[in-house]
Design brief:
Distance between the termini: 20 Å
Protein name: Geranylgeranyl pyrophosphate synthase
Low-confidence stretches: 1-5
Helix content: over 70%
Strand order of the largest sheet: 1-2
Largest sheet: 2 strands, antiparallel
Radius of gyration: 20 Å
Pfam families: polyprenyl_synt
Number of strands: 2
Structural class: mainly alpha
Strand content: under 5%
Number of domains: 1
CATH topology: Farnesyl Diphosphate Synthase
Keywords: Magnesium, Metal-binding, Transferase
CATH superfamily: Farnesyl Diphosphate Synthase
Family: Belongs to the FPP/GGPP synthase family.
CATH class: Mainly Alpha
Number of helices: 16
GO molecular function, one term: prenyltransferase activity
Amino acid sequence: MTSPTALPLADPVLAERIAGRLDQVEERLRAAVAYADPLVDDAAHHLANAGGKRLRPLLALLSAELGATAGSDDVLDAAVVVELTHLASLYHDDVMDSAPMRRGAPAAHEVWGNNVAILVGDLLFARASRTVAHLGPEAVVIQAGTFERLCLGQLHESTGPGEGDDAVQHYLQVLADKTASLIATSARLGAMYGGASPEAVETVAAFGERIGVAFQLADDVLDLTSDGDVSGKTPGTDLREQVPTMPVLLLRERAATGADPADADLVARLDGDLSDDAVLAQVLADLRAHDVVRETRERATALVSEAVDLLAPLPDGPVKDSFVSFADALVDRAS
């Protein structure tokens, strides 16, 4: 499949059908971010035009294939809602993380400033809410619950674990709320409006929760091991901004035991001044070579295995096979 997602689906006929629907979603998405005000229009199109994997719309469309109305307008609108919500959250996240790049382009706040970026994110959330309202009250409740989890994830990431909390478990909950919640909702809404059975809806939503966390763990690895052309982010940005990631949290756990002085030394350098590019590059290289990167990758792979096991109740065939290939592809990016 050579869709905007660059993620494979198992069956070529199914892949072609979904690729055609993704094109329809893309048209609706661009219409949804259009504004009469030139400044708002430019800023709102900024990330949409930069592309992206579109994995949330893809998962919604794939989940819809479990029912009899997979190609309905409601399914297409559900796919637009989840991508609009995702785009809106990126505007906010990049401001909070001071991220200079997104999808290979300057982050919106680097172009228009923090105030514009935050307000454009709010406007996109409003457009997502307007679109989901056409799907009915159940979809509105689901969207509101997802939005709440997105906010909680960002809040808890910002405040960090409380005294006595396990930092790794706290981080996994942040990922579940900040990333996995919307991926699960993508699958849920797609299956619901595709006409799937209630059992299938719950199955794919649970699948989405697992692969959502796995996806972010794979991104943690990519932030350390890939170049900016692959990840769309400047390597080491999270380190410089001291954004928690799984490899760093695992390293801190090891350093706390005192078993290897080199671990404590690396933690001390991570906590030091990383404003100098040469210093950051050396810390990045040392962390890349550390065993915690492999452990993070293994955690992601284990979550994918759990997600695939959850698919057992679904009927065998190209749709189920495509869920498996979809999940595998998310983690293979970090291999």
